Amino acid sequence: MDQEREQTEQSGESGQQGEPQTGAQARKAATPGRELYSNVRFLATLMAVLILFFTFVARIVVVSGPSMEDTLHGGDVVLVWALGYTPRHGDVVVVTQKTFQEDSIIKRVIALEGQTVDIDYNAGVVYVDGEALEEDYIKERMYVPSYGEGINHVTVPEGCCFVMGDNRNQSADSRYPDIGIIDERCVIGRSMCVLFPLGHIKGL
Amino acid sequence: MKQINAVIDRILGLLDRYPRRLSWLACALGGGVLAALLRFIQRATAFEGPLGLAVPHAPASVILVCVSVITGAALLILAATQPIHKRPWARGQAHRWDLAFLDRDDKVYPIMLVAAAFLALAAAPVLFVKGAGRLKLWLDLAGMDGRPSDNGALALFTAAGAFLAFLGLQQMARESFRPGRRGKGGFSAALPAIAGCVWLMETFRAHASDPVLWDYAPRLLAIVAGMLFYLDCAGMSTGAARPKRLLWLAGATIVLSALAAAGCRDAGDLLLLAAQALAAAAVLWRLPPNLENPPVVGQPYQPMQVPPQEEESTHG
Fold it and tell me: Distance (Å, rounded) from C-alpha A169 to C-alpha B175?
């Protein structure tokens, strides 16, 4: 009985009960299921491709906090390039320093390996290898931050970089001992541009 | 003891009968074991410091990548040379791809699938507890500085997805005994694939700020391979069958799942990885022989002969 039922089901699916089914007819009969399957597969594949892209090639990061004002504001959505990136002077980078917090932070690269950083709070100036940086991107004159002077004179070790926020008076960055000098392997990538909100769209 | 020997003899007999099946399983399982061993070695030697940052060009990492690529290439060669019976269009055989996983006499495939289904089911409460914990923390720290950005919703959805995967895998096992009417063979495999989508998002979300790619990239690749593998299983029933690709994806799922599972500390992820690896092994066990010798269900259809109804008697 089961066998008979099975035969009935198979033939019922084929849609032909007395004559051999041609390839075209069979393909036509399979159309609704194939449509559904194709849509599901397309969406799943698209999602996989996007997630792999945003893992190996680029990232989307949402800025939180005022430490990069006026360059970036809280809530800005930033595109970050990760593939093959090595830090350079002046780049706005996304960094994860787990000694500080699990979530990533976004700062600007001030000095690279082998360079010496000196911070003069009285003059509000940062010196790299003895030369004062011209920083038109900072929000306001720099004062001693709430956590004290922190690390204000240091030579950056090999494979590391020194980062600071553009809003120097409200930024926990390489000056803050819990963050300190950043290993370049902790740098996720370079911020390329602001994607959202629309009014903030710009290259970095 | 005799029974165990008999089972072993039977399995060895089946392997002898279908050498292609043996090649697939040996390549995928061998590659998986080797990748897992190398991953353990890599974890012990290729990361440094309290942050566990990757040592650049560490030998273990380089060898691991090479072994993975070589295994993938070997699987590709196997897939390219896999003999496939020409798809017949005659009535009764028109949906042969629906029957690609059918063999009533073979218990190995359904047992593996049922085991995979229960592994997925076991992952559901683990993931639920994890998601609920994150949600509670997120709610407790509302308005505070240290509030985490992850509210646990994706982990909760993944728990629901694990339950869906359980249902789908059970249905796949059932259909290996008897092809379904509406489910059409392996289409129920789309359920674990959908679960894989949510799981992929959850894993990505949980590691989005991790600078060490090795911490999570193998897991992401394993989930993607498993998801596409399940989708190809479902595709066997929709006229969009890609049997060679399905075999390759099954092998890749085993290798990448073993790689990702080595040293994985998350019980929910570990169970889901084991479930998809087991399902992929089941497919490698069943599919190659069925592609060479397609199963035939019943005889050509004959309308049932309805016996003539006797005239109702009007006499007492």
Answer: 66
